[in-house]
Amino acid sequence: MKEVGKIWMNGKLVPFKNAKVHVLTHALHYSTAVFEGIRCYNTPNGSAIFRLDEHVDRFFNSAKMYSMNIPYLKQQIENAVIQTVKASTLRECYIRPIAYYGYGTMGLTPTLNKIDVAIACWEWKIGESKAGKISGARCKVSSWIRIDSCSQPMKAKAASNYANATLARVEALKDGYDESIMLNNQGKVAEGSAENIFIIKNNQIFTPPLTAGILEGITRDSVIRIIEENGEEVIEKDLDREDLYVADEVFMTGTAAEVKSVTEIDQITIGNGKPGPKTRELQKSFMNVVMGKDDRFLSWLKYI
Fold first, then answer.
1. Torsion 221-222-227-231 (CA) sign
2. On the CB side of 124, how many CA atoms lie within 13 Å of its CA?
3. Which among 157, 188, 260, 278 is annotated as catalytic?
4. Following DSSP, what letter does each residue of 261-280 receive, concatenated?
5. Cβ contacts of residue 94 below 8 Å, gap of 6+?
6. Start-end of CATH 3.30.470.10 domains in the chain
7. How far apart are CA 136 and CA 168, in angstroms?
8. pTM confidence score
9. Are strands 6-9 and 115-123 parallel, antiparallel or unpaired?
10. Residue 189 in 3-state DSSP?
């Protein structure tokens, strides 16, 4: 990672290398942290942060689910994100706000410790991940079951949720795949380790509902709204593992992934083994939106 610019920590911009936490920080031991992943794109009209308001709203909602009182207003966090991106001098980047229980008292109960907030960003170029863009990604259904809302709030983007996702991702990589697909405890399709999932069958587009125990993805919502604005429909329904295998196309969505084609699952070829026409069309439509080339969605861009 290139250390450029500064990191915002508790209201101040500090040099990248000095953005440090104590080894006894509560979140390090007990995963008491919530965070966001946000993209800033280098558009023809200048750098623009994609759906900043919605990301900050989810950030605060995640904190609320974990009884964390972020000591800043939403507008202060939005301003801090913009300030951090400007300080980085990067035209496009990945942005990571995080709120966490800090250093003070050790033990399972976090509430005696103050909430620390930090915002960092780093270089992230369009098309950074070739798997799913140039060629389709190869996935496997994970042996790890996706945790669900009976255990902890899945609509929160919380650090603790990603321990489960990390197990699935590492398993897939060790087995020679690009990504994992996780099932919930009912055996239904949930999501990838860091992406929501869609299938296309007979020109109909399907995706698991929020009740499948998935993150309420902002890119997921963006793609659904783009599809609907283009006069088509997305059907939210529970999907079986077999639905993946017989799909005409499969694609994933996420802040980092954007729109990622999947062409193989468990060594079964999806469609003709190449990124499908509908997925290609959605990739192009999504990039037009984030680059400010679609007037219908200009409100999603905050130019800085």
1. positive
2. 20
3. 157
4. EEEEETTEEPTTSS--HHHH
5. 37, 38, 39, 40, 121, 122, 123, 124, 255, 256
6. 6-123
7. 19
8. 0.95
9. antiparallel
10. strand
157 is catalytic: yes
DSSP code at position 194: S
Annotate 278-295 with three-state secondary structure. Answer: HHHHHHHHHHHHHCCCCH
Instruction: Tell me the angle at which helices 52-65 and 74-88 cross, rounded to the nearest 10 degrees.
Output: 120
Q: What is the pLDDT of residues 94-117, one digit of tens each?
A: 999 999 999 999 999 888 899 999
- CATH 3.20.10.10 positions along the chain are 137-293
Please give the Cα distance from 238 to 192 (Å, whole number).
15
- Check whether domain 6-123 has CATH 3.30.470.10, yes or no: yes
pLDDT exceeds 90 at position 125: no
Superfamily of domain 137-293: D-amino Acid Aminotransferase, subunit A, domain 2 (3.20.10.10)
User: Tokens 């007990």 — which residue?
Assistant: 30
Alpha-helical (H) ranges within 160-249 are 161-174, 218-229, 241-245
Q: 182-204, pLDDT tens digit by residue? A: 999 999 999 999 999 999 999 99
Q: In the chain, at which residue ranges do the beta strands (DSSP E only) sit?
A: 6-9, 12-15, 33-35, 38-43, 46-50, 93-101, 115-123, 137-141, 179-183, 189-192, 196-201, 204-207, 234-236, 249-254, 258-265, 268-269, 301-303
The torsion angles phi and psi of 240, rounded to 5 degrees, stand at -90, 160
Closest CA to 289 of 281, 279, 301, 278: 301
* SS3 state of residue 22: coil
- Quote the pLDDT of residue 271: 96
List C-alpha distances in Å: 175 to 57, 171, 200: 37, 6, 26
